[in-house]
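Morning F.,

Quick status update on the modeling queue. The single chain you submitted on Monday has been processed. Sequence for confirmation:
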Amino acid sequence: MKIAFIGLGNMGGGMAANLVKAGHQVHAFDLAQGALDRAGGNGCATFASARDAVAGVDMVITMLTNGPVVKAVYAADVIGHAPAGALLLDCSTIDVASAREVTARAQAGGYRMVDAP
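Structure tokens below.
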């Protein structure tokens, strides 16, 4: 399975590395170059943007800092840019209203989405 992982901080970096260990191809993106470098060292393919990372994947996993960031990333870089059949999985710990809003937008765009903080 080809998985895009956006947000490679304390939790996301380890999760992405474990997906590689499990045999998945992981497209990694983070704003922090150090996090990208660690992901690359753990076998992830690194990308310069979230939009580039989601191209051609089966699943998109996000682990981001807060609701406004999650909403912005999905609106600008995931919905309409990830393949239509991709499963979207948000693992960010965010407020319920933001999670519901992103899920509604994803579903309106034809995606299946899971909120799994």
